[in-house]
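seq:
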Amino acid sequence: LSHKLLIPIDYQRIYPLGSLRYGVENVESKTAIFSEAGEQITAFTIDSISAFQKNFAIIYQGQHQGLINREGRLVVEPEYAEVRLTADRTIGVRSAHTWYFLDGENNLTGNFKADDLQSISESHYIVRVGQKFQLTDNAFKPLHEDPFMSIGPFANGRAVFRKNSRMGIISSSGEILVEAVYHKVEMDKHF
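struct:
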């Protein structure tokens, strides 16, 4: 490498994705794939990415997973709750479950795709798709742009959440009470 600058230090985080590929995270917490020579392979559109295995990596965009190859080509669009690459290189995908809402007379009033829904108040839900969580209003509109790695459980209208491997505290109305900048956060019964 002879002391050559490969990737400038203008980014929030640079990490290896396996042999000869790097994940580079910008200040908006979006990731792009770079080569070992410092060449940008993809745009900064990826929310998170796994290490490459058998020349493929699982990516997240929003709460959905997709599959990308080492050259930056999307093999599976990020529209699934889960993507798996098996030992024989078969790709398995799973869509989120569909939740149906009925009124008191069993008439369908709506539906929503998610792996899990948890009502935390009359006007808010925790929605899980794959391994990502969102706090939403009762119309399932996310209260925050980027999903969380985990939320809850709620106690006294507050919960610990994890985002970008850091922890913070959020209220059941979606207000960030403690920013996600800590390695560990615990709430006691008096908080």
